[in-house]
Write a structure and sequence with these properties.
Helix content is 26%, strand content 44%. By secondary structure, it is an alpha+beta fold. The two termini are 23 Å apart.
Length: 168
């Protein structure tokens, strides 16, 4: 099910729109996006691994995490949750940071929506960048390829969890 993804760059609105379908129930997909135990299993393009230092999934809370290379190099980032509607939508502002959580601005605003029909969950992601330069740099650095790879790992994780009968 690797071709069930849409990735649109809109330079006029400085936005990236990503839509991806998963063969899993919405509750499980929601948990994969909102719990440390599952997020750290997929939120990084391999060979990088995700390692969360702090996560408070609530409005006003944050996730402070690193993408860690096989050599141990860390690339830190902070996600600040600005809005949460359980099981259907959450929003956060994100920016790279140093290991002390000092943000490297500008960042971007993410808006994620979850819907389910007949056991298939669709996740729609809108990523707004304050500047066109940041959007273009993000794309130039391989965001599409990296995020596509990352979502494919999520798809594999969800398939494995569904097979085990993990339901939330």
């Amino acid at each position: 099910m690797r071709n069930n993804m849409e990735f649109i760059v809109n330079k006029e609105t400085k936005t990236v729109l990503i839509t991806k379908e998963f063969s899993a129930e919405r509750d499980l997909v929601w948990d994969a996006y909102t719990t440390v135990e599952l997020l750290d299993q997929w939120w990084a393009p391999k060979p990088f691994a995700s390692r969360t230092k702090v996560m408070e999934f609530r409005e006003g809370g944050r996730r402070f995490y690193a993408m860690v290379s096989p050599e141990g190099a860390e690339r830190w980032a902070v996600q600040k949750y600005t809005s949460i509607t359980p099981k259907t939508n959450f929003k956060f502002f994100t920016a790279f940071s140093d290991a002390d959580e000092n943000l490297q601005l500008p960042g971007s605003d993410w808006d994620l929506s979850f819907s389910e029909q007949d056991g298939t969950t669709t996740v729609s992601v809108s990523i707004y960048n304050e500047s066109l330069e940041r959007l273009e740099k993000m794309i130039e650095m391989g965001f599409k390829e990296g995020f596509t790879m990352t979502l494919n790992y999520l798809e594999e994780l969800l398939a494995a969890l569904s097979e085990k009968g993990v339901k939330q």
